[in-house]
Specification:
Helix content: 10-25%
Shape: rod-shaped
Bound molecules: zinc ion
Structural class: alpha+beta
Order of helices and strands: HEEEE
Largest sheet: 2 strands, antiparallel
Length: about 60
């Protein structure tokens, strides 16, 4: 196993961790209802995928 020869400074350590931020989730607007949904996933708001109704949304009665 490689052993570090020198201790990295706080500045170098923090500069390295500047790239560790979590990327935001990529969403696209649903073509049916326009709410943000994940790619290649059923829309959770209207239950449609590729123009087909996969499940019915709960309607308040
Ligand atoms: Zn939708």
């Amino acid at each position: 196993m490689a052993v570090p020869r020198n201790r990295s400074s706080n500045a170098r350590k923090n500069a390295k961790r500047g790239h560790h931020a979590k990327a935001p989730i990529n969403t696209t607007p649903c073509p049916n209802c326009g709410s943000p949904r994940l790619f290649h996933r059923i829309c959770s708001a209207c239950g449609q995928y590729k123009g087909k109704q996969i499940f019915k949304q709960a309607e308040p009665e």
